[in-house]
Amino acid sequence: MSMTNSGLHQTITAEMLHQLVENTFGTATIVKGFALLQGGLFNTTYRIQLEHASYADVILRLAPEQGDMPSGSASDPLFSFERTMMSAEPVVYEYYRKAGIPAPNIIACDDSGSIIPRTYMFMEFIPSKQLDHPSISEADKERLNHQLGAYTAVMHQIEGATFGWPQGDGTIRGSEHWSEVLHSFAEETALKASQVGYMPGVGEEIADMFITNKGLFDQVTVPVLVHNDLWEANVLVHEKKGQLNIAAIIDGDRSMFADRQFEAILSTESSAGFHEGYGRPQDMSNEGQARLLAYRILSSYFNAYVHQHQVDQPEAGQKYCERTLNLLEEWKRLEIN
């Protein structure tokens, strides 16, 4: 099975796959079949059928290679939070489960690097389809979006001790000040971009926003759990008792403790059903709207860099680059400056 690897996304040999299965499920386990799943620019994902194991149908996900360079260094192709995000995923789903939000069932997660120099996890396969599947009727979609809105509202009530990224050991890497988490995220992106001469000066300008307007961002004092990659493809639905329901909210590995308005779906492509289910109004104050614009700038800039230089999707990179510059112009016209 040969395929080209897009830098980060790397396949493994059948021998290695068998070894990881045996290590997790025991030597009596037989691999009946496996397939590489498409999608996902970051992790490499397989679906595996097993015999003589506690689960018959599982998903194996592998993070990119751990590499030799210290996490967070400018030459590391990954962001520091990306280095720890797969091992944080079980922690995030535990938060979900306690709050009654449907989550994937993680069987095992290993970041020891002892068998393979990559973090990997086995999860139970969920027979389902994504919320953006064309077979879902408009009426069902609205109802499911309403459900998603309600679950998101519950998620946004899960509080953390500080702002930042949950870690595999249950701690949070960040700060008590929201402005500092935003600044360090912007600064790390700017550093990576400047290494490759991408959008010169823009990253520094964005990072500076969070220092100059520190007071604006530090008005947000309660860190809550946001998914940070919430869109229809990351919501699985299945039929239960004759109607479609959300089976799991997946790919929670980019989650962080943040301002609830940092959740992009609140201000972008969400449906009326979602907002009804969410049941909490946007912060329409001048400060709230200014923060929202700053989040969109940071997210757009991060996406520009990632699509251009991390996952080699230059068309998307160009789109985000233009969006970033337009949003920055909008920021300069705000009264707060």
Question: Explain this structure to me?
Answer:
Residues 1-6 have low confidence and may be disordered. It contains nine helices and twelve strands. The strands form four sheets. Strands 1-2-3-5-4 form a five-stranded antiparallel sheet, sandwiched between helices. A hairpin with a 5-residue loop joins strand 7 and strand 8. It has helices at residues 14-25, 80-99, 138-155, 178-195, 202-212, 214-217, 272-278, 286-310, 314-332; strands spanning 30-36, 44-51, 57-62, 106-110, 120-124, 129-130, 163-166, 172-175, 224-226, 235-240, 243-249, 256-258. It is globular and about 65 Å long. The chain has 337 residues and is an alpha+beta fold.
List the helices and strands and how they pair.
Elements: H1 14-25, E1 30-36, E2 44-51, E3 57-62, H2 80-99, E4 106-110, E5 120-124, E6 129-130, H3 138-155, E7 163-166, E8 172-175, H4 178-195, H5 202-212, H6 214-217, E9 224-226, E10 235-240, E11 243-249, E12 256-258, H7 272-278, H8 286-310, H9 314-332
Antiparallel strand pairs: 1-2, 2-3, 3-5, 4-5, 6-10, 7-8, 9-12, 10-11
Q: Based on CA inertia axes, which overall geometry fits?
A: globular
| Binned strand content | 15-25%
Order of helices and strands: HEEEHEEEHEEHHHEEEEHHH
> N- to C-terminal separation?
56 Å
Helical content stands at 25-40%
User: What's the total number of strands?
Assistant: 12
Largest sheet: 5 strands, antiparallel
Q: Counting H and I runs of at least 4 residues, what is the number of helices?
A: 9
In order across it, which strands form the biggest sheet? 1-2-3-5-4
The overall pLDDT average reads: 91
- Gyration radius (Cα, Å) is 21 Å
Which structural class is indicated by helix and strand composition?
A: alpha+beta
Low-confidence parts, pLDDT < 50 over ≥5 residues? Answer: 1-6
